[in-house]
Structures are given as structure tokens and as C-alpha cells.
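hey m, so remember when u said the C-alpha cells were messed up on ur end? i reran from scratch. heres the input so u can diff it against urs
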Amino acid sequence: MQLTHNYWWFKSIIDQDVCQEIIQLGKDKIEQQKAAGERVDGTTFGGGEKELNPKAPAQGEKTKAQLQKEGIDHSYIRDSEVTWFSDNWLYELIHPWLQEANQNAGWNFQWDFSEAMQFTVYKPGQFYGWHRDGQSDHFGAYKRYIHGVTPEPLKEDGNLPQQYVINPKLVGKVRKLSLTLNLTDPSEYDGGDLKFDFGEHAESGQFHTCEEIRPQGSMIVFPSFVPHCVTPVKRGTRYSLVCWSLGEPFK
């Protein structure tokens, strides 16, 4: 799909006090989950997280082609801690900006539901390698999982099989818009940048590091099919809030 704007961003639109409130809520929730013995590492559809691949090398921000040149065929793609929010006030906070970006960028994608928001923590050395947030065609639509009826078993860790959901509001839909809110003061960390791959024929260049959203409270919205990564954090801790908004597959 040819896009005039590959992403749309807003600088420091969320107040610093609100950012700090979200950070504290997220940190507290992660600690509560750890105390309860719950898993808080960021997962991937393909099982490429560090917890499941402790002996593999880290992908970092390297592409698969770069890794293969180094003789690396298998690496873990993700290393982070996460928890989830479904608070109405958070949706009320970000949805107006999401819709403004959708219109201003000229996408005007149809969407009607947002998944639970992901609060993510990246500490030194942690990252999320190259990935897309989801497919946008009918093959990528969510399917409903019914216990005892769906033939595919749950994963060993108890999670649903890839592409299956329980929430009926997600069934038949695909992720269309991805949103990231940077919660952290840029003086508190190095690295941890959102980076895009627009393809080798992009007029502006294939790779782009989004330094635009480093100011605390800045937000970026982009189509969920655009490949991206979060580069390894070199110092400090980066906190972010991520949301995916869904609609029917593109027609």
C-alpha cells in the first residue's frame, strides 16, 4: 500500500504528571503480578521472546539478513516486561488523538474497537526486534476460541493459539492502527528508539529512527502493517503505552 504519510505524531501532548501516573500504575501492577507468580515478559506470536530462548543470541535491531551474514539462524526477538490496562479514562485520553492522526495522515481507516493497552518496560539491553503488529487481510483476522470445541489446543504456557481470541468484539477483525505513547523523560534513558522499515524503495530511505517522539508525553500513530522495532536500551529505563485499534479487514 502506497502511503503519503507512513506515520503521524504529536509532540508532548500528554501532561508529564499523567505520564508519571501511568508509569506508577504500570510498575505497581507488574510487581503485583510477579508476587502472584504470573508471567510479565513480553510475548510474541512466534514464541520468539527471551524467556523461551535463553541460550539464543539477541536480535536487537538487526535484520534477518544481517543476522544470516553473521551466521545466526535463530535469535530471540523480544526482551521486555509488560502488563495490560483496560481503563476507560486511558481510552478517553488517547482515542481523540488516534482519530485525529487517522484523518490528518489521509488514511481514514475504518476502526471500531481497541484492544487492551500494553504498558511496556525496557531496561538496559532490552528491545523488541523487527515485526509487524498484525496482518491486515482476511487471513489475519482474529478467530474465536471456544474451550472444548476449538480443535487447536492451548499453548504449553496456557495462552491461546496464534490468531485466536475469547473476546467476541475482536472476532473477524484485524489490527489497523498502532499507537505508542512515550511516557519517559528523554534524559532518563539512551537507546530504546522506535524505528521503521519503509522498504528498500522508499523515497525517504528504508530505515527511519523516530526521534520525534522522544519528548515525554509524545505520541505516534502508524498503520499496523508497517514493520518496526524498538532498539536496545543503552542506559536507564524506557516506559511506553501501546494500543492497537481494529476493524474489518481491508477490502
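this time it looks ok to me. The mean pLDDT is 95. if urs says something different then somethings off w ur setup not the seq
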